[in-house]
Queue: 4 jobs
Job 1
Amino acid sequence: MKRKPSLAVLPLLASVGLLGACAGGSDRYPSLSLRDFERVQGSYAAPDSAAAVLRPAPLGVTQVAEIGTALEAAGARHARFTAHAETARPIVADAAGTGPEDKRWGLAQVEIAELDSRRAGTAALLADLDRLYADATLSFTEREQVAQANAQLEGIVASEDRVIGELIDLLAGPSR
């Protein structure tokens, strides 16, 4: 009976060196040590850190004018909102504690909706400032003035939100 050679013996033979066809003389292969041109030579000065800092350009005249226009419009809209809120407050107070079956409740809802509409007009100006901020970011110009105007406008919108919330709470509260 003839035996077939086992393939399991091949790794053993390779480790012993019997299959050393690839392990010829070292003079046939280049050395893996660093060669002279691969070594770092010379020295480089570190760049001056103060010179490397880039500063954004100032805002353009057009952008500054747009910020001023947005703030001016916000002030005018807020003044109209405040005047209407003073007119709406007694109407809402008169309808306090009533329900949809009462005509006063419907009138109070209309006043609150009108105030909400005016608030939305003021809040829409935030989109203009957001666009200016994005443009300033992309063109690497100063954004601080836009951010300050945005914060000021957000404060106005937040105060209008508080007034509307107070009127809604007043309407839902007990009748007077």
Note: The chain has a mean pLDDT of 86.
Job 2
Amino acid sequence: MRLKNQAVPYFDIIKRLENLETNDKETREFLSKVVQVISNMQDIQDEAKEGINKIGFVK
């Protein structure tokens, strides 16, 4: 499960959502909120990766 979560291409999801076209104001606002949440998830994942020490030899 953990490996699957790391492989999620958030940038691809955000790009696809931003490219959706709709004339409905409510739908546009909802999609905007979804993009914000996904961006926050990416930020959290990036911060978590910074604190991970890799296993192996140090050069």
Note: DSSP finds three helices and no strands in the chain.
Job 3
Amino acid sequence: MGVKADKIFVNLPVKDLNKSVDFFTKVGFEFDAQFTDENATCMVVSEHIFVMLLVEDFFKTFTNKEISDTAKSTEVIVALSVDSKEQVDEIVNRALNSGGQPSKEPMDQGFMYGWSFQDIDGHLWEVFHMDANAVAQG
């Protein structure tokens, strides 16, 4: 039997926690106040997916490595699957209108549509919709 996990917690370093919370609130995400203090917050993506936004100094206590300079390199792309192409556009447009930066142009492969942005700390996010029926027929 392979590895199975019930939930995923993505940990991302941020320069200014309040600005990051404001940005992601404008994008449409909510936060769990129970796991929020001056060092971190828990952004709720879904019932099983969470993003911990950690102030850089606090983030450093979890690793012996340097934090990636997001202006120069990419460590991870957080990809989120949503229910429709319209939802992809809505989320990315909210991010861009809230201070996020473009990452890649929208891509439409027929069965899959996606678009990406950089958050205010330079982390890459891809939002995509995949038509399960088209994939099954493929």
Note: The two ends are 28 Å apart (CA to CA).
Job 4
Amino acid sequence: MFIHMHGSFELLAKRMADRTGHFMPVELLKSQFAALDELQADERHVVLDIAASPKQLVNRAAAWLANGERSSAKLAFRTAPSSGP
């Protein structure tokens, strides 16, 4: 079971730029998006959009885990539309 925390390129770039002393420079973000292997239909997962609040993300992940353990089907939902670079 996978919880994929997804966010738009723009949102991630802004959050990274706002950090001080972070080990990963914003310039590497594009390569990270390019290298990301999306989860496949046969992998049980949920996609949560990081534009949601931390509390919403925790609640949705916990609810999915409680449901997902009883289900053999892939469960997926997005908390909000988002896009890549």
Note: The first helix runs from residue 9 to 18.
